[in-house]
Batch of 2 targets.
Target 1
Amino acid sequence: MNPWDIYKKAFNAWENATATYMEQVLKSPLLLEPAGAWLSTMMKAKAKGDELAAGWWGGLGLPTKRDQERTLHKLNQLESKLLDLEERLAADK
Amino acid sequence: MIPLASLFGRPPPAVGQTPSDVVFAENKWRLLRYRAWHEGTAWATPVLLVPSLINRHYVLDLLPGKSFVEWFVARGHDVFCIDWGTPGDEDRYLTFDDVCDRYLGRALERTRRIAGAPKAHVLGYCLGGTLAAIHASVHPERFASLTALAAPIGFHDGGLLSAWTRSKGFDVQAVVAATGNVPWQLMQSAFHLLRPTLTLSKAVHMADKLWDDEFMNGFLALETWGSDNVSFPGACYQRYVDELYRNNALVAGTFTLSGKPARLEAITCPTLAVTFQHDNIVPPESAAVLLERIGSADKHRIHLPGGHVGAVVSKKAAQGLWPAIAKFWADRD
């Protein structure tokens, strides 16, 4: 067996053992609970920041990003409803 | 060293090369129809491919010679595929019902109408398989058959994704409120964490094959696809996690689609579930549970060695998996 093959064999053994160990660690509630709480805190902080910015922007009488998203979504929904109707008409023919 | 250096000058692999036409488009999604092989179509029932929402559809048409789509088109199938596209910021409000009922229903209806067939064979891959199974449980009359390719159905499977999404600390509502669409970067990081040593392992095993052009093309095409993810529409993601992951609603029989109960036992069409032994994204038991729950008597399982992606697009797949699916469809044409 050449040195490269020996290295690969050892690497595979290490990789398998490490992956199994990491899976146990990453499943552990001891890690998941604080990691989840940290993620949630960051997300809530971002949402609060966005809300403040939108409040300021809206205070100037301008449409916020959320207003624009809602309008675009409504337009997409309208297009979909027209297509629904078209399909119903085609089915009735 | 020379093959390693040549990696830097190598053009990116040309993925998704099978010629197709966009036959329908709505919001960001499109319905593709692959152009028939010279001899035309040989089968009466068209095939609709439903890829995952968060990955690009071209995984099923990776490279010439390694393309699921090309293989089936060459054998006379009329193949359609949904390209979900890239959600815009406004699609944060897109619901699970919009995607799974309205869009998928429309894709099926158009496929059926364009091909002039009463029903279609539907193949859903990964989350696409979950969407197809839910749709089939509410509209079974639209399906000539259902093929669920590594599709998660039971979400309490002991896997890492299941553990993370069900962790008490994970507040899905906070994530969606802050990000709108759940960023692909967040999901890709989670997928990397499923096996953190995988990147290193790939590098070590790639070293052996640096001079093998065919292997490297396939490898780089898969890496290209793996890094080309899309964000998950926020409202849709929230329901996906809350009801499917946390409540396991599909297996419990409590899931609804547009207000109608989505019970797996209502699936009466011929059904094929494909599971992979080393799939760490969708553990085999999560996908196999579909067959235990459906009402169809014509149900089959193929269990193969390999992982979630490799086993679907490898050379081996062209010798084992693809012919098996072709036979399943041919017997039910």
Target 2
Amino acid sequence: MIDISELKESGYFSDFSDSDLAELAVIGTATHWQEGEIIFQQGSPAKNFFILKKGTVLLCFPSGRSLHLKNGGHGIGWSSLVSPFRYTATGICLTDTTLIQFSGTELYSLIRMNADFGHKLMAKIARTMEERKKYRV
Amino acid sequence: MYGVDAISAANGWMITVAGISIVFSGLLVLCFFISNMEKAIKLWDKQKEKVKHAKLKPVPELVKSKKTRDDKKRATVTKVVWLTPEQVEIYNYYRWITERLGEPFSLQRLLEHAEKRGIHRPHYHLDMFLQEGLIYDAGGDKIGFHRWARDIRIELIEDESGKAAK
């Protein structure tokens, strides 16, 4: 469990209500990763969704393209919420990194229970997917 | 004709001697190769080590050059980045790798090469070069691939005594 203020600070959930954030805070965990550590491998089963809180992550796509994500507020691992539930890139920590981790299954439970929350979250995921689409080709 | 007479008549002895010499020559070569393998491996390791610690030819603008040349360059330089000698060495190494990869290059490939060559903290240094703007996204249809910035001059951080800082 994490503090709601951490979610607010991250910026990713800025348009979510306090009650939504409270529910997210229950299932969120702060995880710490070391420089050079691989968060997930492209093609592996996508089980978790992450919000970048601190540090830098490099998303490496099979096309050879890569996306440099720094500082907070980036959503990583949208594949955990979208079929076929396999990561489309490899996530590598370029520095010591703190991520807020959410289990895909638990996020799905929240989506099932709260339609408004689900709509907002999936809209964000769709935007992220669209932004990163050009890196996948 | 049978037996030894038949062997002699058909040049059997010569063929036997030739066969034995071929086999033994082969074994001799093999023996020489195996006995020198250790030296060859040592030489290989030495070369690898050399490559690892090679100080590549510095890019002209890295080190303090003549004033006139510097002044000319200043016209196109928009930013100055200060690096420690170790960072400069790694910067040069990364440039050397990307020269072989070609521009625009893939950061993933660059990292793979850097890790393979045992560069000190390759991820950290890559991040630093990206944050400082030394490496930038090529954009357009090459989005996600990267290039080296040409308008940034690198200066070496020196300590008070004027010697290069460690």
